[in-house]
Every structure is written in C-alpha cells, then in structure tokens.
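Here is a typical sample entry:
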Amino acid sequence: MNKISIITKTFRIHDNPFLDSDLYIILIDQNEYGDNQKKFLMNIVNLHLSDLYQIGIKPIITDSYKKISKIIKDNINEFEIFIDNVNPKIKIPFSKYNYVPTWCLIDWTDKVDKIKEWFLPEALKNHKVFKEYVNKNKRKEHKIKNIKKNYEFNKYFSQTNYLDKKLPQTYVPLPVKDLEKWILKKLKTTKFIKKKEWFKPDTCPTTKISDIQEDIKDIYKTSKLSPFVALGVISPIKMYNYYTGEDRMGSGKDQLLFREMFHACAQMPEYWNDNFGKEYNWKNKDKEDWNNYINGTTGHKDLDWAMKLLKKEGWIHHLARHMVADYLTRGVLEIHWKYGMDWFKNTLVDHDDCVNRGNWMWLSGTAFSTKQRSFYHYSPDKYLENRNKKLKIKYDYIDD
C-alpha cells in the first residue's frame, strides 16, 4: 500500500512519520493567518523546503482543499491517506482519513480514556502521574534514512518555485539556512538555562520577539523559541531531552509538559466545545469595547502597550498574554474567551490551536485552574510597573 501524507501548519523534518510518503503534500491555508503569521510562515516554508529537497523530497504545496481532494479521489484505490490535522471542528473533505500527530512528545490518539481520567471535567488531577507517563511513553526521535523517492505526480505539482520567491520581511529573526542548528545554538547559549540549581526566573514582560535588550540580565529574558516550536521547526522531544538534564532549569521542561497537556486534551471531542469547563454568564461583545481592545486604545497604559505590540509583531511575553486575557474575560469586560482565542489565532506567530484554546480557558477561569476564578487579577494600568520595581527595568511603549 502506497502512502499520501498531508501536512497542515507544521513542516517538521524531525520526528515526522510522513517523510517516507510516496507523496508529501504541504497544505497552507493562508485564510486562517494574520499578516504577521503569513510573513513568518512563508519564511519557514522556504527553509523547510530547502531541507526537504536536500533529502530528495519534492512536496506538493497548495492552499486548495479541492486540489488535495482531487489527488485523493484520483488515487484512492492505491494509497493510504494520512493527515496531521488535530481540530475535529475543522471540516475538510479528507478528514476521514488516518491521523498521525507529528508535534507531540507522545502519540495520544489511542489514549483518550486515560486523558479523560486525568483532565475531565476541568483540572489536571495528578500532575506527577502525568509527568511519569510522558517520561515512560515518550516517542523516539525520527531518524531520516532510506527515504523513498516520491511517486510520480507531476501533473499535480505547483508551478511556483517557492525557493525563488522574494519573501516579505518578518519581525522574527531568521537565519538564511541551517535553522535547527541556529535554534540549538540559541538554546545552548541561553545562560539561565545552564544554572545548576533549579529555579524559575522572573522573566521580563517587556520582551519583544524582535529586539535585543543588552541591558537586561539573562535571567529576565525568554528564549523566544515558541514560534519555532509551534510550526514544528524544532522537535519538542529534542527540547525536552535538553531540559531534562540535571544541570538544566525546570521551567522550560514544565512549559513543554503544559503544551503536551493541551495537545493531549485536544484528542477529546469535549475539548473543542466552547462550553467546556465552568459556565459563566458572559456579556455580549460590544463593538466599541472590542475595537478599543484589539487596537490598544482602551486608555489603560499597559494593556494598550501589549495589544499594540501584539498587532505589530505577532508576539508578546506570556505574562503580558495573561494580562490581556484577564482583562477581556473575568477581569473587566467579561466577554467570552473564544473571542480572545480567535484574535490570538489571527495575530500570533506562535499560534497553536490546542495551546491557544487551553490557555484561554485557563486564564478565563473556565477550566484547568481554580485559583484564577476568584481572586487573582492583572492590573491593565500598572502591570509592568508592579513587576519591574525591584528589577529596575526600563521599557518602551509602542506608539500609534
């Protein structure tokens, strides 16, 4: 039986069970992306194409569901079809075919009952058990060898040579080639990760994805690797193994486990229901309030700074994300978290369906975290000031 694989939103070379496919299709549905994401995505596609060509794989690149459906229809009797799409709410013509995740530490597809035991109705009951399970059942890194030559599908191939296209500028710094080597080097040169003692640094909320702030101590910086993890540039398994060493800090590893938790939950149909978790009497979305929120014109200094930065660069520090999520949902406007989730989907360069959904439920107090519900809020006016008094960090606000 021959194999057709359809890759959506992720183009990982490593840990990718699709590399031995007779036909390798990359689906780019740009209608689901904002401007910053499109710029970043096209740069990543080019870097991945270069890697694929080097190992003899010439993929079909398309943004047309109809084109893929035709390929499948023409070859349905000869091929087994695989797809890496995870969100069951996305209705696509070929969704009935086999699903193989390419971005998780472990494959959760046959473990739904175990996931329900741990996560439903709304909280992770035993994080220690979850960690032990991940460590025990971790997938092995995929080794590239004996790659097949693609089946002859010349009539389907795009005439566009993506490697020759002039790419739009992205705010995210990217090397010209050897992207994974660049990322691994960045991991190894991040000083706070190499501390022998375990601690979680007080990370700096002012961090942009495109800036270099030499005056800020390393323990306050973030790695800014989330876009590369979200698009499958670097393997979560490789990162997890790096963080697991005794001389590494625990924060990066734990964040990968939370990411894994949300991907695990994504295997449950219930997770994709907007009423998952605790029910609230959310207010209707007011047009003026919403426009002020997304454009950073609320009059709240720190909130507006964060939302303008998000719109400009497609990335803000995770604590700033906490602040804007709190403001929209249970903090001030009391609007349903799904609206914020959709806005992040259209703006974040590191958007991940599973993680974005889980974090918005978390910060809105509807699922996964009980403490968020009643007493903890972020100030939209003095958030940065309160966090940075003892650090003496200067920050710049984004102008109109």
Notes: Residues 272-388 form a domain with the DNA Cyclobutane Dipyrimidine Photolyase, subunit A; domain 3 fold (CATH 1.10.579.10). DSSP finds 14 helices and five strands in the chain.
